Amino acid sequence: MLPVEWEVWGLPVGSIEDDLTAAIGPNVGLVNWQSLQWPAAPEAGFHGEATHAEVTLLFNTRTRELDGPTGDHTVLVHVRSIVCDGRQAGEPYAHWVAAQVGLAVTGPAQRS
């Protein structure tokens, strides 16, 4: 299998995901949505965020490095990691974003 990279701009959500999933099949792969804008959530103390606002859908793997097949899929929500007054400010925002679509964060935050 050789690596393939394809960029598309301005396509609506739902326009290529089914075809891409079928093409990837049991192989590992990813879709990364960049240049996003997380919405403000004043009631939760969050302001709109564009830096590090990404979502990555991993097919049959759990890392962006495409380490080994796992047989399941993972969604990574990328938010800026900020520590203010000793308190992590980015990670709670990831939980808020997941809750907006009826999901929950299931793993620990990745630290680089």
Which outline best applies? globular
Taking strands numbered 1, 2, ... along the chain, how are they ordered across the largest sheet? 1-2-3
Radius of gyration equals: 15 Å
Strand content: 15-25%
| Helical stretch tally | 2
Number of strand elements: 5
Q: How many angstroms separate the termini?
A: 28 Å
Task: Give the structural class.
Answer: alpha+beta
Biggest beta sheet summary: 3 strands, antiparallel
Mean pLDDT: 80
Labels describing this entry:
three-stranded antiparallel beta sheet; 5 strands; globular; alpha+beta; single chain; 19% strand
Describe this structure in a few short sentences.
With 112 residues, the chain is α+β, with helices and mostly antiparallel strands.
Task: Explain this structure.
This protein has 112 residues and is of the alpha+beta class. The chain has a domain at 29-100. The protein is built from two helices and five strands; from the N terminus they run αβββββα. A three-stranded antiparallel β-sheet has the order 1-2-3, covered by helices on one side. It has a two-stranded antiparallel sheet with strand order 4-5. The longest helix has 11 residues, at 90-100. The chain is globular.
